[in-house]
């Protein structure tokens, strides 16, 4: 009688279980991403220009989402913002309130350096504000901007686990929890760099668990780059953001040093590069510097 190699069978069973576990994990990840909201054909609009926007023109040119700066609420009031958002909705455009989180003229540290703990007082105050924005009738999303440090995140890492990346992630997770029962899309802008954690405290993979959409700000002019860089950046962030969709932020002007509007063909080329790199959508920064429009649905 041949002796049964129980050790070999046991190893095969363990390997099979591991494979099944990995497959289940991947399927769960795919299902999670599939259930997340998308943001395609978007444009950022400064709050003060809300009433200057030609909604018919944007709708005609395939714009499906507007990131409206929260200053519109301060300037025009919730009721007027709501009425404007409803008009946009009637034209097939969703309106997201664009919220600056840790910078609004001055930087706020996500860590309370005196307590060496997360800056919960500020977190809670900001989340209360975000909740009010999300409750405005006609608003479809919240767009988190400046969820980061200005470039010195590596200076704030304490041995008790209170680190810059954990602080930024904690804030976004708290926003996500607060909005979980509301029918809104949550998106977050991130820097388009591979060292986001070190300099900005942005752990993109972790952040992707809490938001529907990660938006790398692939502003090529600011980095003196071209469309090939945008494509590579889109591919990189698509591989990094396991749990969310990825929409690429596309700059429509030369650079922050020169706000001359780019030619339409350049904007088209850069947008196509983002989609070719695997992005789920594109968002144009910004409406004020977009001098001529083209149908965003024609970017293939």
TrEMBL record:
SUPFAM superfamilies: (Trans)glycosidases. Residues 97-232 form the DUF4015 domain. It comes from bioreactor metagenome. Pfam families: DUF4015. InterPro entries: DUF4015, GH. Coiled coil: none annotated. This is DUF4015 domain-containing protein.
